């Protein structure tokens, strides 16, 4: 049945958490932790805000995400505030099924792409059964994750049919002066559109598009982003040849330091909103 389970918001400001002004001084020394999880060929990014709100973006290709979450989350913690799916491809979706089954999730953010994927259908079934609030990811939506921590959806503007990569969510996570640009599997066409648009794309951290495939990382886009760190989520000896030499060179060209999960395993960055440290 269509629209049986509509989204609560569209083009809206969604506030997951907002601390009282009086508690601002209590934030001293608290950090945002950002992880690219080591889940093989796929994407799974886990973020914990200064007051411990958590968001998972994509779940990787299988249940290895559960083991990784066990490493970065406290043992007793069985809930995740927000889960976002960038697009319905198995290397981003399959692990999310296990996450939704095993954790209490408050909000699920996705584009409602009409592309058929059995894993996506299963996710939607669990979302209905568990009564998880669904938020539509579309350009203009802003999710406040914590005081001073905001996720802004830059893409998609409107969905196209056919290739889910073209509808992949591109979002900017900002904490104080530090920005993380998260591109899912968006490709050169989407990147170019953003590079030619009005958004300020400049970010300290870029999650490189589509596992370092040559179909992403448009040089014009990279120049606009000017990342200090380029993070590539990719499986060791994957059959696609990701990341490509071409992309690695383009990233070096803009002066980015590259980290990749196939060589560096889990990548962990932390920030106080002013500076950024690579923990590993
Ligand atoms: Zn992918």
UniProtKB/TrEMBL annotation:
SUPFAM superfamilies per record: Metallo-hydrolase/oxidoreductase
Pfam families cross-referenced by the UniProt entry: Lactamase_B
Entry-linked InterPro entries: ComA-like_MBL, Competence_DNA_uptake, Metallo-B-lactamas, RibonucZ/Hydroxyglut_hydro
CDD domains: ComA-like_MBL-fold
The organism's place on the tree of life at top rank: Bacteria
Domain Metallo-beta-lactamase: 41-236
Name listed for the protein in its UniProt record: Metallo-beta-lactamase domain-containing protein
């Amino acid at each position: 049945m269509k629209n049986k389970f509509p989204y609560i918001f569209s083009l809206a400001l969604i506030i997951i958490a907002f601390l009282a002004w009086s508690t601002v001084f209590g934030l001293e020394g608290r950090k945002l932790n950002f992880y690219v999880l080591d889940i093989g060929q796929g994407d799974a990014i886990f973020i914990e805000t200064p007051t411990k709100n958590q968001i998972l973006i994509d779940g990787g290709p299988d249940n290895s995400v559960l083991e990784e979450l066990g490493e970065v989350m406290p043992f007793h913690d069985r809930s995740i505030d927000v889960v976002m799916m960038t697009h319905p491809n198995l290397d981003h979706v399959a692990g999310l099924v296990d996450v939704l089954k095993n954790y209490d999730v408050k909000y699920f953010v996705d584009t409602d792409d009409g592309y058929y994927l059995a894993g996506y259908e299963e996710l939607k079934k669990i979302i209905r059964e568990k009564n998880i609030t669904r938020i539509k990811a579309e350009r203009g939506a802003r999710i406040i994750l914590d005081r001073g921590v905001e996720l802004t959806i830059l893409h998609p503007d409107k969905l196209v049919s056919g290739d889910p990569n073209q509808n992949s969510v591109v979002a900017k996570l900002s904490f104080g002066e530090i920005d993380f640009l998260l591109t899912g599997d968006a490709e050169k066409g989407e990147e170019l559109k953003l590079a030619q648009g009005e958004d300020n794309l400049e970010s300290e951290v870029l999650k490189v598009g589509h596992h370092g495939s040559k179909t992403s990382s448009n040089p014009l886009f990279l120049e606009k982003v000017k990342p200090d760190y380029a993070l590539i989520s990719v499986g060791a000896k994957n059959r696609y040849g990701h990341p490509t030499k071409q992309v690695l060179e383009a990233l070096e060209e803009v002066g980015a330091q590259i980290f990749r999960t196939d060589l560096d395993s889990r990548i962990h960055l932390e920030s106080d909103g002013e500076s950024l440290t690579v923990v590993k």
